[in-house]
Amino acid sequence: MLGFVKDNLVSLLTELPLEKGKQKAAERIDQEKLRRRVGEQMKKYKEDVFQHIGSAEDFDLENANQYIKEHLFDSVSACFNLDLKWQQEQARRSLMDSVQTAAGVKEGNSTRKSAVNQYVKIFLDIIEAYYLEKVDERDRFLAGKTIEEVERLLKEYISSSHGRIMEAIAYQGSFAEYIDGIQQASDNQKILHYRNKLLKFQGREQELQILRAFLRDEAAISWMAVTGDGGSGKSKLLYQFTDEMEADTEWKTVWLHRDNCQSVLRFNGWAYPCNLLFVVDYAGAVSDQIGRWIEMLDRNRRRPVKIRFVLLEREGIGREHGAEIEPMWYQNLKGFGEQERAVQRREAICFEGAPFLKLEHMDAVSLDKMIRDYASRNGRELDRETRKWILGKAAEIDKKREGVRPLIVLFTADAVMRDREYNKWDIPALIENILRRYEGNKAIRQGGHWRETVCQGREDLFCALEEMLMFATAVGGWKLEDSDELPEVFRASAEKILEMTADELKTFICAVNEDDEYNGVLQPLEPDLIGEFYVLEYWNQRRFQKEYFEKIKEVFWSESYTLPFAIFWERCIQNYCTENRFRVFFENGMERMEPKEDTGVAYDLFNMLLVVLIAYQENVDAEKTLDRLRELSEKREGNEEIAVLYAKGLVNLINMQEEEKAEKTLDRLRELSKKREGNEEIALEYAKGLFNLSNKQGEEKAEKTLDRLRELSEKREGNEEIAVVYAQGLFNLSNKQGEEKGK
Prior knowledge:
By secondary structure, the chain is mainly α. Among the domains are: 2-166, no CATH class; 205-358, Rossmann fold, CATH 3.40.50; 559-656; 659-743, no CATH class. The chain is 60% helix and 5% strand. Pfam families: nSTAND_NTPase5.
């Protein structure tokens, strides 16, 4: 079947009607190279699509080819030559629908429909990336007709397809125009980057099925979150899924950026000619805006038939000793009042009745295939025993109860293939191994892709790149066009890079980003685990330059960068706060990182981050961080928000402590609750503290603790959340009693 499809596609591409200019174009087309290009595409789609479609008789590709040839200068040409991007996209959808009919695909046969759509997509992709470069009249498509003839055919096409293609919306300044103008990131050439197509996507079929069901659901508006640790494959999963969705004519997929999530709120209608799927990476940065948008969509009918949101974040709803814990980003998403009700109404219920899809560990077979593929891409072949050793060592390094993360498996495989001798196998050592290929040997200032190739051996340019890459990674990217607004501390490095000619600069940025397309942005160093390590190590090397560190800290906590930096710093806490080499940045309540008190929002975010830090630290360090949080709370006596954060910090510490110490910490929480008698949020945290302590205790002590929780619940009769915590405590107590009877 695959060979049949491949032959038909090659036949179509080599027999396109070229009439005028045919001989010249044909001379330039290397048919063997074209066949190889088609072969590469066929290999990619073999397992994804074509193995499921049965025999060649299931649809008529010869008729499909004939239709494409006959409509080359209207339907196909429109995919490239209509003036507006949205018109081109609509033309592609229309072409796919028409080719399905020509191929005899019956209505409702989604498998055949997807296969034909993929066939058309491959054809259009190859035309755009390979074929159009081989003829002179590129803008007029294949040099097959005169400009006048093509323009006439396009006008006829537009006129005949008006009802279907030119939707009755005022496009200029509309939401549709805005959505079509959002630039989507191109494929990346870094083999460890989630947007690369060098490595075949492995496993996760269950998760893909859940995402497909999420789109099929009849709900008009719905959202879900894909959660998991850094390196677990969240972005890779959605990249694979959205790539698959490109061939679905009923949906348009858009990865939203931070500034987009604010801009969409200015519209009073969100009409679009097809369904919309929005993917939001690092959703915590914009969860409040997404929540407000969901509320606005909920009461507005000027929108597509279906809108879906997939939010990517590290934490979902968790449980601490049985208590349900909501992450900060989810609380911001819900907000309060009508926004909270709308967000909860629009939660996805197509899987287990919950909107959170936590990525489980990948199966060993898929991980083994991933190692083989990675080795093959690096020109190596690893035997079965070596691959098995890599999986075992990666699990040992990762120390995750849920299973080893795919990215750590690739880090380990990379180290093995580089034949390095390690005295210590851990994540920092593996990342250093990877970064050394880019930075070279810093001690002797030699080697490395960035220094020798990208910077052509210029040490001054290399140093400038290192600093700006640190900046870009910490704040989510450096837009070169905004360089006039850069803080003074980064100005010299920026100017060193910007003194290049325009062409040199494009080549330079693309080389660093390892991206084929230039978008005027120096991207953060990814994957996140590598980027976070890079920034922390850069700071570590300059930690004794106190004046410099104070300057960059002031920049990162300034209004322009506060939120993206806080999100970046939270990831650093999660991954590196217990790493000895970076201890200086996290010890004593992160005193080294503390912003100036007069920086408003930054100071509040810093206090939130202290609460996060407590949850990841060892007991002794966590107690010091809590002391710092208490000091800040007392310093801002009238600030209820910091008092709530202090209460949350106490709860986090109780979770980590043994029973005796937890009882003493609970006493501090009780005193705080008394002091802030009217604060319902602190009362709730006290309830959680009682609940968590009861889970550490034996039956007799737990009963007494729950009596205190009952009294609190009765006192706060209108607080349903406290009542729920009390009910959970009773349930857990009954389980303990059952266990005692069983003994």
